[in-house]
Amino acid sequence: MTTSKKKLDETSHLILHLTHRDAIKKGITVVSKGEGIYVYDAEGKEYIDLTAGVTRPVHLGYGNKELAKAIYDQICQMSYFTPMMFANAPAVELAEVLSKTVPGPINRFAFECDGSEAVETAMKLAKHYHYSKGEKERFKVISRKGAYHGVNGVGLRALGSIIPMRHMMEPLAPGSIFVESPYCYRCSLGLTYPDCDMACARNIEQVIEFEGPGLISAFIGEPIQQGFGALAPPEEYWPIVRKICDRYGILLIIDEVICGFGRTGKMFGFEHFNVQPDLITMAKGITSGYVPLGAVGCTDEVMEPIAIFNHLHTYGNHPVSCAAGLKTIEILKREKLIDNSADLGKYFLEGLQALTDHPTVGEVRGTGLWTAIDFTVEKKTRTPMPTEHLINMIERANQKGLIIKLAPIRQAIEFAPPLTIQKEKIDAALKIIDECITDEEQAMGL
Ligand SMILES: Cc1ncc(COP(=O)(O)O)c(C=O)c1O
């Protein structure tokens, strides 16, 4: 498919997501082709995509014909059937495969259209669980400041980070509770790890006591958080949260929408921590972004009291999306792409760490092929670098044929290439990142 439009401008009929009118006036790149880790715009310019599609789903890279064929074959075989009162073969199979792929007791799966719906469904399942057990009052959900869990009504309440989006959509669903994030580089409690004794995790207990333990349904969190840029918590964090949830009968939902399917060098992000969730949410990498799919997994214990799940999406358990999920998991495992994410993630991180001599490079973080640079104008105070300079760096990178992205809190730049990336491409990308930082620092007179 081609379009005569080389750049999108304000005369276009298309509404873009999260894109300011001023950016549209300047002209928006129209992408027209993808191959491996490269994308090409409508003018034929080639970019290394260090963001796997900016929202990071494209784990297998672009143009994977084996995956495309699996999708085509499923459309020919059985393109659609309802998720209610009937099952379809790919959905049954994908649930079976996931039950063996997710470590621990998570054993039951429902399929939705995207990550936001997966989050909604997880919260609904948590509510069903408590309701069916006679604890009908539990409706509140705890999330972290700096979290992101999607854009739907209930999911939005667990969205702590994207302030213009959140404020515009308020009032949020009632029962939204926010606790601190484990952001050690700029601790919101003014403490220093490890002397802090993980106050950000331990304080959750006080918040629960204040909010009413019998009113809280679930705690939701990303194992490694995107808001601040690929932020992994200290290893004690998740076990402390798990213990607190157990003490108060609160279900723990770990949101694997970004981390799942190898992004962080393990199949799931929670595998980096000594924690077992009650529910997990998945999307993005589950189909490598080729067709939409979100999923929720939960334990038998969560499903046991639920006689009927009062929920119906026309496109739930979609056979074509589930067939794509099955093929994606098969390729990820066969091509050992999760090992590649771990190995090359380490290599990439070392390359980024070599940039810390730059006066503006504050903290370099990363797990697997998900890394970030948190920028500062002063290393001693860790004052964040104004966002406009990060945007300049991103634009400089685009001009040099590299796509990188701003982390949602707008203080860091993050990198999440397809898991198929190779060393030479990482070297090429690191060189451009280095040049863009140097150029911006020079422009700032540093
Ligand atoms: C952790 C997390 N949860 C949920 C979502 C929402 O997923 P989607 O954009 O597919 O609706 C996102 C999207 O970035 C996410 O990062």
What does this protein look like?
- The protein has helices at 21-26, 65-77, 89-101, 115-132, 153-157, 163-169, 199-202, 204-211, 237-248, 300-303, 319-334, 337-353, 387-399, 423-443, and strands at 7-8, 28-29, 31-35, 38-41, 46-49, 106-112, 140-144, 176-179, 216-221, 251-255, 279-282, 294-299, 361-367, 370-378, 383-384, 402-403, 405-406, 412-415.
- With 446 residues, it is of the alpha/beta class.
- It folds into 2 domains: 66-334, 3-Layer(aba) Sandwich (Aspartate Aminotransferase, domain 2), CATH 3.40.640; 336-446, Aspartate Aminotransferase, domain 1.
- The strands form 4 sheets. The protein has a 7-stranded mixed sheet with strand order 6-12-11-10-9-7-8, with helices on both faces. Strands 13, 14, 15, 17 and 18 form a 5-stranded antiparallel sheet that branches.
- The longest helix has 21 residues, at 423-443.
- The termini are far apart.
- Bound molecules: pyridoxal-5'-phosphate.
